[in-house]
Specification:
Blueprint (H helix, E strand, L loop, with lengths): L13 E2 L6 H29 L3 H8 L5 H16 L3 H25 L2 E4 L7 E4 L8 E4 L2 H25 L3 H20 L20
Antiparallel strand pairs: 1-2, 2-3, 3-4
Helix pairs in contact: 1-2, 1-3, 1-5, 3-4, 4-5
Length: about 210
């Protein structure tokens, strides 16, 4: 029985289009849809934590385009609101998993495809993030994309579960932060925060007394 030929033998002819790879294209489509949902849910976590007007939260969140930058911002806001505890630890662990998955997702979306013309069932991508100047060929299958899409949905659902678990904790925490802000404004009005250590306080004007 003749040995099957290597679809990726040196010098193979291929195409960068996915027109002849409908299963791969379908897998990419599902991955993109799941990732869009994850980003929306991450924004929901951020907006709920900030308790800011929705247009402001949206403007801040979507000003950043990289997943790592967004996850770091969400973690920072959560730290400011929660102060610590198991809830904060759980969120940071989840965000770290999302960051790791983002690298795989970015490769599937951004690296070019190389599909052997003579082997309709074979498909690969050229990985450009390594040290090889020409890139490294990596064979992929539709199941790889579907598995990653399923993983993204798991993290997406976990974001919803996390924000639901802390929902009841947030109102008093937000009130505490607003009270601290009000105190800072009072101190600033009186000039207390403007005087260097040991310097006499600025006398209050009649309108401030």
């Amino acid at each position: 029985m003749p040995k099957p030929s290597d679809p990726f033998a040196l010098g193979f002819e291929g195409s960068q289009s996915l027109e002849e790879r409908p299963k791969i294209a379908e897998g990419i489509g599902r991955l993109c849809a799941e990732w869009a949902l994850l980003e929306l849910r991450m924004f929901g976590v951020f907006a709920t934590l900030t308790d800011a007007p929705l247009p402001i939260s949206r403007a801040i969140f979507y000003e950043l385009t990289a997943t790592r930058g967004r996850s770091q911002m969400v973690a920072a806001v959560a730290s400011a609101v929660l102060g610590g505890g198991n809830e904060l630890t759980g969120l940071k662990e989840l965000l770290a998993k999302i960051d790791k998955t983002a690298k795989k997702r970015n490769a599937y979306i951004h690296d070019p495809y190389a599909n052997p013309t003579d082997h309709p069932s074979a498909s690969a991508q050229i990985r450009l993030s390594g040290d090889d100047a020409a890139g490294q060929l990596e064979e992929i299958e539709s199941k790889d994309l579907l598995q990653l899409a399923s993983q993204v949905r798991t993290w997406s659902d976990a974001l919803v579960q996390w924000i639901n678990s802390v929902q009841q904790m947030l109102p008093p925490l937000h009130e505490r932060l607003r009270a601290q802000q009000a105190l800072a404004l009072v101190l600033k009005r009186r000039g207390i925060d403007q005087a260097p250590p040991g310097a006499p306080q600025r006398p209050l004007s009649p309108s401030e007394e």
